[in-house]
Amino acid sequence: MVASEHWGVTPDLLCFAKGVTSGYVPLGGVAISAAIAGTFARRPYPGGLTYSGHVLACAAAVATINVMEEEGIVEQSARTGAELLGPGLRALAERHPAVGEVRGLGTFWALELVRNRATREPLVPYNAAGADNAPMAAFAAACKKGGLWPLTAGNRIHVAPPCNISAQDLAKGLAILDEALAVADAHTV
């Protein structure tokens, strides 16, 4: 259910938010390891505000976790990433010189867009704006024209469809990305 499980890591602090309630009710939290929690055995934990532990938000979180377990959402996300999304994004990278790297797990991925694959020069400079950001803006506009609303950050596009996306909808999204990446390719050397 959390990425740290893939590498056998036990985090001291694990922050979570939005998804824990399916986004229906605002809730965020921090799961704290026994070692960290032990430091607060004799002093107050300085976290939490007025709405901490809100009953409605916590009930929505419990319901969401139960549904995810009952419907095998985490397992479906893992299969989708391994069998469809990851291979589909790697195939796009083979066809498009603007894709410098593909990374991700399950249904949470990113494409790093580059100007030059050999040097890994980013498609746009760090914190680009205006004319400096034109290649990413053109790429994002091409995605939107195709019906896909992209989440871009710097020279990356985050590909994070719903965990229960159908194979057909995923194929449509990948086709739109394929066309939009041709726009980014025009800015490569």
List the helices and strands and how they pair.
Elements (H helix, E strand, L loop, with lengths): L12 E4 L12 E4 L1 H5 L16 H16 L2 H23 L3 E7 L2 E9 L4 E2 L11 H13 L4 E3 L2 E4 L7 H19 L4
Antiparallel strand pairs: 1-2, 3-4, 4-5, 4-7, 6-7
Helix pairs in contact: 3-5, 4-5
Description:
This protein is of the alpha+beta class and 189 residues long. A hairpin with a 4-residue loop joins strand 4 (108-116) and strand 5 (121-122). Helices cover 40% and strands 17% of the residues. It contains five helices and seven strands; from the N terminus they run E-E-H-H-H-E-E-E-H-E-E-H. Strands 3, 4, 5, 6 and 7 form a five-stranded antiparallel β-sheet that branches. Helix 4 packs antiparallel against helix 5 (167-185). The mean pLDDT is 94.
Broad shape: globular
Beta-strand proportion:
15-25%
- Low-pLDDT segments, ≥5 res: none
Q: What is the element string, with H for helices and E for strands?
A: EEHHHEEEHEEH
For the termini, the CA-CA separation is: 40 Å
Fraction of residues in helix: 40-55%
The value of Rg in angstroms is 20 Å
Overall pLDDT = 94
Count of helical regions: 5
Structural class based on helices, strands and sheet pairing: alpha+beta
Attribute tags:
5 helices, 7 strands
Outline of this structure?
The protein is α+β, with helices and mostly antiparallel strands. Helix content is 40%, strand content 17%. Helix 3 (73-95) packs parallel to helix 5 and helix 4 (134-146) packs antiparallel against helix 5 (167-185).
